[in-house]
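Lab notebook, bench 4. The sequencing result for the construct came back, and we need a structural model before the next group meeting so we can plan mutations. Quick request posted to the team channel:

Model the 3D structure of this chain.
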Amino acid sequence: QASRNFASAAAGSNWISVASDASLQKARTWDDGVSSKFATTPIRDIFKDKKIVIFGLPGAFTGVCTSAHVPSYVRNIEKFKEKGVDSVICVSVNDPYVMNGWAEKLQAKDVIDFYGDFDGSFHKKLELTTDLSAALLGPRSQRWSAYVVDGDVKVLNVEKVPSEFQVSGGDVILGQI
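Done. Here's the predicted structure in token form:
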């Protein structure tokens, strides 16, 4: 299995430290955003004292992300729970409202936690960004997956190019836990 390590995101790094000033936005409706005063979730709150499987992808409502990436995690959710994983998280450089609509369309909102990285700051800190302007997406996330325990990266898989789906799927990381 081919995987690449990125300096800040590499196995052995601690994402609570690397991305300490970044935050993500839980998928939600616009009205929920307004009522929460557009609250964000600090990285520490996501990873501290938890076993997390997290995967990043180029964009909500896009091809491989919709047809293969998210479904590979939904299909394996019970197996992740059996391995003691506290939550499975999907993150993308999108706003939380788009992520919410996409999660609902995929009927995955009750199974996976969806977060938006609206300005890409989380992905920038982890050096997991890519420019997908040619596909009219602009700066986005690489396609990747990670197993993170108390902020410590145990496994990181990054696709060679975002259109590939070889190493970042739910089946692969399930076998790495």
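The longest strand covers residues 51-57.
Will bring this to the meeting.
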